[in-house]
Amino acid sequence: MSNNSVRVEPGFRGTVTGLTRASYDQRATITVQNAARRTLASTTLVGKGENSSMTQEVNKALSAWAFGPFDEAMTINVSIEFASSGKEFRPSKAILPVTVTKNPDGSCPQTYVISTLLSEDGSDNDFNDCIISIFQYKEATGNNACGCGGRPGNTACGCGGRPGNTVCGCGGKPENTACGCGGNTRPPPSGGKC
To answer: InterPro entries under this entry (predicted)?
Structure first.
């Protein structure tokens, strides 16, 4: 793997998003490669401005790029560049991706992996000019799938996360149909204000 790459294990799917915090144009080229280093998919995210979501270069309406699941391990490579107005793009400095993994546990058996890549386009070294986030997850299967209230087997969620409660009223209670102050069934005090 290259310095700006993240491994995707078999069965994982996810999204890649970008955020800019700079006046320069930012461009992130994302490629997915298999073990033979063959590129199987790619996209380019572009953007500029303070706290602005990046969009796909080919479809500005999309601010995320989805991938997976794959039958084999893949590598996502990220190349970040910047350009001042009207100039050619140049490589940005980048910090190795920081990856955090949430492994399955008793309350929810899914696995989540979040990787963040930070880049710098100037000399202030704040490494926040273009931020790329790669969110991966692997869905649980069989009896390990989370249902209502985090309990396997509860698949039809109703009011309050309880199966069978299909008509929600005040405070998530099916029997409360006339809402007053704070979601209670009591009407507001005289004067009509809670």
So the answer is: Ca_lectin_sf
